[in-house]
Task: structure prediction
Amino acid sequence: MLQNERQYRVARAQAKKFEQALAELLGARPNEQTDPRLRQAQVDAVRGQFEELRAQVADYEALRSGQQSVLQWRSFADLPELLIRARIAVGLSQRQLAERLELKEQQVQRYEATAYAGASLTRLVQVITALGLEVRGDLALPASAVSLSQLLDRLKEAGLDRDFIYRRLLPPALGDATDIGLNGQSQIASVRVAENVNRIYGWQRAALLGHESLRVDPRPLAEARFKLPARVKEPRLAAYTVYAHYLALLLLQAAPMKAREIPSDPRVVRNEILSLYGSLTLHHALRYAWNLGVPVLPLADPGTFHGAVWRIAGRNVIVLKQMTRSLARWLFDFLHELHHAGEKPSEQDRTVIEADESSEHRKTSTTEREASEFAGQVLLDGRADEIARACAEEAAGNVRRLKGAVQRIAASEGVAVDALANYLAYRLSLQDINWWGAATNLQPTDANPWAVARNVLLEHIDVGVLNDADRQLLLLALVEE
Result:
């Protein structure tokens, strides 16, 4: 791996040379006297060198960007490389680390060049302290084992039900494991689940084997602006929210884009989407968000919260979690969350977690109403109030006539029927009138909005930058059951 700026500059220059050489090889006319297999071997060799250098440069740039907050390790053998990567990630040069350790720069260079081969345990602890690292982990004892059924019972108490664990924390090959004994497949599944819950929740093996309650880290929920719906069990909500927050962190690593300012004027958002893509669809709106540097994560799990926005170190991630197959409902929810993502841009960290549309908080909160109005104005060309009044007049104030009125007004005003129906359902909910059922009847349901959002996400991320365990967790979240 690259360890300093000089190595980075050299590797980048070499990568350009190999890229040019590869292009010349591929563009050159084959020599009839040269064996095609030999020529292919030359191409493969140059391509291999280029890709290796490019990967090293990309890895160094990702570390140097400061966007990684957690570096994973599995054993003490990983510690030397971890310390080097951590130094780069926190923005210290070898000279600056040496100053903190009161050593010469050359000594730190020797440590890193030899993977800390000559460093004592005391020195390694000093390096960890100088870098300001928090090292967490556990020592797996050979005799400690827990059956899959025992582990599932423990996790259920913490809000993680069996179905969620099998779908999101176990690879498909282990998803059919049954409790056939500690040496069977279920024990492999048990170990994998334990590793993943430790990765996400920080629960050590000793805690999983113990009897004390497993406590969820409250930070992903900290200062969240939402009220818990009565029908949602709090442990399940807390556990799933921490899981979604972990995925959001992975997404920021896999999509190291520069964040741009999110417009607060709905007309600007609408015009920019139309200018860039020609039409206002869910697919185009999502691509617009990614273009702003805002990753959008669609989740396909039922219950718990309805949507979320996390701002982490100045970067926003939107989570969409709508079970309907209506493109218009997804688009409305996305624009609602985009407005939240643009609020209070000076705050480096922020959390918004949403209940569903019918919740009291969504109806009474000023900021929630502002976000929904923003979505309506984007969808209805800045004429949401005017068009809503026209629908009320067309229906003569009779809710039972509103469905037909919406269809006629949408046609005359040149707006989408499904978008208008959703907006009116939202407006009526403010008056404690539940018109969501009628609005749903005006929604085409032959599309798969979740898949649309998932496919846009896959266009923009590089899962290769994640370690194997995190990559698998993210990809499992992108599987629709």
